[in-house]
Write a structure and sequence with these properties.
The complex is a heterodimer of chains A (337) and B (395). With 337 residues, chain A is an alpha/beta fold. Chain A has 3 domains: 172 residues, no CATH class; 68 residues, no CATH class; 57 residues, no CATH class. In chain A, 40% of the residues lie in helices and 12% in strands. In chain A, the strands form 3 sheets. In chain A, strands 5-6-7-8-9 form a 5-stranded mixed sheet, with no helix packed on it. A two-stranded antiparallel sheet of chain A has the order 1-4. Chain A is elongated, with a radius of gyration of 28 Å. Chain B is an alpha/beta fold. Chain B has 14 helices and 10 strands. A 6-stranded parallel sheet of chain B has the order 3-4-5-6-7-8. In chain B, strands 1-2 form a two-stranded antiparallel sheet. Chain B is globular and about 70 Å long. The chains are: A alpha/beta (337), B alpha/beta (395).
Chain lengths: 337, 395
């Protein structure tokens, strides 16, 4: 079994003030005496808590809040999670999302230890999922792990537990989306005013993966200057450093260039018309990605003419063999695929 | 520029459902050989062309920068001599690696008759090397590809396996030896042992161009995996080509057969099946020919139907090897079942949660609250589990 690690640097009873840092604005926490503390905990366990996170992938904010809530024995059904962007759109939001009031830890709350895999699962995958229920799921699993007994056993070790299965499916969806982004981002070179070439791409991921996924492109295209624009966020690599920025629009990305035509020629020729199998293709390259893939514009035509081309090859039959190699024709560059 | 991390990425898919991860080109389609199944054989009337080394390098780099590909898969028709051709192919890889510091994936198709020194150089630059075995039997190769020599192919594969093994052992040995330095001295690092085709070697076999049965094909694959430590054997259904040879009539490619061969190949590599149990010598199944895999059911289900005495398998007590033999269970499913049963007893409802094909799995397993009863003995079990016949699509 994997060695447990602390859910954060330390999940220990610590002063209330200590919990408020980073993205969570400080509440009006002040020093209390022991008796008041216990009363406050009683109250916080029963009242509803609304936690507003700074942005959709605010892992630090989530972790800080979740740690405090577990230690104050706040059950999952008494917490509402949302992001600042959602809160701004929510007409029925109880109050402007200026501060989160985190409850103080219950007296005698113990250090919570969770498997390192769980921290990685939440911090690197689940938090990137677009489903607003991801925070509630992560907190529910954490809460159950803290309860001990068979509940904790199932939440920690049973891969067929309902919450764990849901988390597994969501993590799979995020991992798949990240993988498809590695595959389907298409760069187009643009010459900047300073004479340098920047490779730009427009991509629409399903989940909040753009920033988390930048490492792959940094490792692969280290010497290039490149930028990936998405509706949620944009990332730009200048050869030294990664810059993150707000979301963009498709019109911010460059149009096709002449070099792309070679890729289309290659795509046209690598296809074997005798083996048309559109179902398989759509399974691996779902149609929602097509409008950002230059080669996808060829698919319909290639598929429609496939049977005819294949039948023609069979019907044409054998040709008269020729012993001499045909001379090189310089103008047939399009047959090079 | 470039990186190669773990699994390869399919950057696109062609409408034939196949993955496009590498720029797969021939340096030239001029060829002196007369392999009947090949569109570029010397007797074909196909227009010929030739790339320069630099053209291939620039094309690879341009596609790579656009994130269209993972790297290059370079092969070539045989021109002048096998050595000359191989030298050109290796030169492309050298220029990419040494002049452009290209760290993407390079797969080189090697020519069995080329000299061992060239093969050695190819292994220095390439991630993977491959030699096509072309046909599963030596007789088939003689008949369809008269210039190719199966003994030479075998020798080259063996030589490559030795180089790959030596390079791995050298790197492992070097990693194990810690460097002892004086206290307070700068930490130092030894140059690592040179790589030789770190992605191993693979091969390709044409299926359906001659009369070889599946049993022979799988035996050949098992031999290649065993003796030459191949990473993959690719099966390629013989498919119509323009300018076909008179001796090799064209037909629709046997894609279902190709699919069944891949499934059988997986059973050998990940499920602990041996090649001779997947297709028994005398096939008792009336629905299939002797020595051939059934086309209507997958090879694992076919095996289970023929060995019903081994089932049902108990989900709570059976060892991993037996669970892997249950039709409808993949390796991941089995591993999750094993993890779950360490904390509790497995029940019928757990199977539903796993998203396994229940209809296929249930006759072959028992759980804490479920027994298949006499379902296994039903004579028509095969018919119940076979997919319903579908009308061929019009498009």
């Amino acid at each position: 079994m994997a060695r447990d690690t602390c859910f954060s640097t330390a999940i220990r009873p610590e002063p209330v003030e200590g919990l408020h840092h980073g993205h969570i604005p400080a509440s009006t926490g002040s020093a209390r005496t022991g008796g008041e503390d216990a009363q406050a905990t009683e109250a916080s366990a029963s009242q509803r808590h609304t936690i507003t996170l700074a942005h959709p992938t605010d892992w630090h904010g989530f972790r800080t809040a979740a740690r405090a809530l577990v230690q104050a024995h706040v059950p999952p059904h008494a917490v509402d999670w949302r992001c600042q962007a959602d809160a701004a759109e929510d007409l029925f939001a109880p109050e402007p999302a200026a501060s989160n009031t985190l409850p103080p830890p219950a007296p005698g709350a113990l250090t919570l230890r969770v498997p390192p895999d769980f921290v990685r699962l939440c911090g690197q995958q689940l938090i990137l999922h677009r489903d607003p229920a991801r925070f509630a799921l992560m907190y529910r699993l954490l809460w159950r792990m803290a309860q001990g007994g068979s509940e904790a056993e199932a939440a920690r070790h049973d891969p067929l537990d309902a919450d764990r299965l849901l988390a597994h499916h969501m993590a799979r969806a995020v991992a798949r989306d990240m993988h498809k982004m590695h595959a389907f981002v298409r760069f187009r070179p643009v010459v900047e005013p300073d004479g340098q070439t920047v490779h730009m791409a427009w991509f629409e991921p399903d989940h909040y993966i753009t920033v988390a996924n930048a490492g792959f492109f940094i490792r692969r295209f280290t010497q290039m200057r490149w930028a990936i624009l998405t509706p949620d966020a944009s990332v730009r690599w200048d050869g030294q450093q990664l810059h993150t920025g707000p979301g963009a629009q498709r019109s911010d990305a460059p149009p096709p260039d002449a070099g792309e035509a070679l890729w289309l020629t290659y795509y046209r020729h690598i296809f074997n018309p005798a083996r048309l199998k559109m179902g398989m293709m759509k399974k691996e390259m779902p149609t929602r990605y097509w409008h950002n893939l230059p080669e996808a514009a060829l698919i319909t035509e290639l598929a429609q003419t496939a049977h005819e081309r294949s039948a023609q090859m069979v019907a044409a039959g054998p040709t008269t063999p020729r012993k001499a190699i045909a001379p090189l024709r310089p103008d047939r560059s399009r047959d090079r695929g | 520029m470039g990186s190669t991390e773990g699994m390869g990425i399919c950057h696109s898919y062609a409408p034939d459902g196949r993955c496009i991860s590498l720029l797969k080109v021939l340096l030239t389609n001029f060829c002196q050989y007369d392999c009947l199944y090949c569109v570029n054989r010397v007797t074909s009337n196909v227009p010929r062309a030739r790339f320069t080394v630099d053209e291939v390098v620039q094309l690879t780099l341009d596609f790579y920068r656009r994130n269209c590909i993972e790297g290059l898969f370079l092969s070539s028709g045989i021109i002048q001599s096998p050595d000359y051709t191989m030298e050109q192919v290796v030169e492309v890889a050298r220029v990419l690696r040494e002049e452009h510091d290209f760290r993407g994936y390079i797969h080189l198709k090697t020519i069995p008759d080329a000299s061992p020194e060239l093969m050695q150089r190819a292994g220095r630059y390439a991630d993977r090397l491959s030699i096509n075995i072309e046909l599963p039997t030596a007789e088939g190769l003689t008949a369809l590809a008269p210039e190719k020599d199966s003994a030479a192919i075998d020798r080259s594969m063996a030589r490559m396996a030795v180089h790959i093994g030596e390079s791995r052992a050298a790197r492992k040995e070097q990693a194990a030896q810690a460097i002892v330095s004086m206290p307070q001295s700068r930490t130092t690092r030894r140059a690592s042992a040179p790589l030789f085709a770190p992605g191993g070697q693979s091969t390709q076999m044409i299926v359906g161009a001659d009369a070889t049965d599946d049993r022979t094909i799988l035996a050949t694959s098992a031999r290649l995996y065993g003796t030459h430590r191949l990473r993959r054997v690719y099966y390629s259904a013989f498919s119509p080509i323009p300018d076909a040879a008179r001796a090799l009539p064209l037909a629709a490619p046997p894609t279902v057969r190709e699919h069944r061969l891949y499934q059988a190949d997986w059973l050998m590599r990940f499920y602990g099946f041996t090649h001779d149990e997947i297709v028994p010598p005398s096939q008792g199944n009336p629905g299939s020919q002797a020595g051939m895999l059934a086309l209507d059911v997958d090879p694992k289900l076919a095996w289970a139907l023929a060995h019903r005495e081994r089932f049902p398998v108990n989900l709570n007590t059976a060892p991993r090897e037996l669970l892997l033999r249950v039709p409808g269970f993949g390796v991941q499913t089995v591993d999750r079942l094993l993890a779950a049963r360490r904390v509790r007893r497995l029940r019928h409802a757990d199977l539903a949660r796993l998203h396994v094909p229940l209809k296929k799995v249930l006759p072959f397993v028992e759980a804490a609250d479920y027994r298949p009863g006499r379902a296994l003995e039903a004579v028509d079990l095969a018919a119940q589990l076979a997919p319903p016949p579908v009308q061929r699509s019009l498009f």
